[in-house]
Amino acid sequence: MLEGPEGRHAVSVRRLRAGEEVVLTDGAGTGVHGTVRSVSGKDRLEVAVTAVRSEAEPRPVITVVQALPKGDRGELAVETMTETGADAIVPWAASRCVTQWKGERGRKSLAKWRSTAREAGKQSRRLRFPEVAELATTADVARLLHGAELGLVLHEEGSLPLATAELPRDGGIVLVVGPEGGVAPQELTAFAEAGARTCRLGPSVLRTSTAGTAATAVLLGRTGRWA
């Protein structure tokens, strides 16, 4: 039985009807395939389960540290990174960010990112939704990089092409995407001291809201997770 907000979304928004196939998931690696048996009211449907599927935690885990973009581009970045396959997303208050998350505005913005990740996870039929962490400082990001198997910072002047970087088969990869104004020199220094390497995607410079998605796709292809 599916009811409550998820049931309302299925019945009133997606307009599911008896006989249609559905995939339900807890967002933490377990899901069921089934067929809608009946619909009652505006927020309840009964599903006949045909298969249960469990998905192990992926390896290597890909975490994208996303500097806060302007406007609603942050939600766009979260949506496309989720659909592509990022495992965790960390909003970062970089020194050159125009957008600032403070007080109630910050709490609402974080809630939007988390809601966007959840909805994009459902839309792309993922069994594991990415965790969207609390807003991180540069010191927080440096600690993440220090604890990663591989830390990478996207930078247009990076000498290492992401397409040829040696990648781990296990552990975690932390990828840092800077703001519109770029990663500040002191931030690059802090990240280098934490063991991160600067890398580039290609000859063109992408927006901060699309760079993370493109880089995630490269990593997923090269690690074999898309094989």
From TrEMBL:
Every copy of the Ribosomal RNA small subunit methyltransferase E PUA-like domain together lies at 2-48
Q: Might you give the EC number(s) for this enzyme?
A: 2.1.1.193
Give its localization.
Answer: Cytoplasm
- Give every Ribosomal RNA small subunit methyltransferase E methyltransferase domain span: 60-219
- Single Gene Ontology MF annotation: rRNA (uridine-N3-)-methyltransferase activity
Q: Which SUPFAM superfamilies match?
A: alpha/beta knot (SSF75217), PUA domain-like (SSF88697)
BP GO annotations: rRNA base methylation
Q: Which Gene Ontology cellular component terms are annotated?
A: cytoplasm
Reaction catalysed by this enzyme: uridine(1498) in 16S rRNA + S-adenosyl-L-methionine = N(3)-methyluridine(1498) in 16S rRNA + S-adenosyl-L-homocysteine + H(+)
What the record says about family reads:
Belongs to the RNA methyltransferase RsmE family.
Q: What is this protein called?
A: Ribosomal RNA small subunit methyltransferase E
- Organism of this sequence: Streptomyces abyssalis
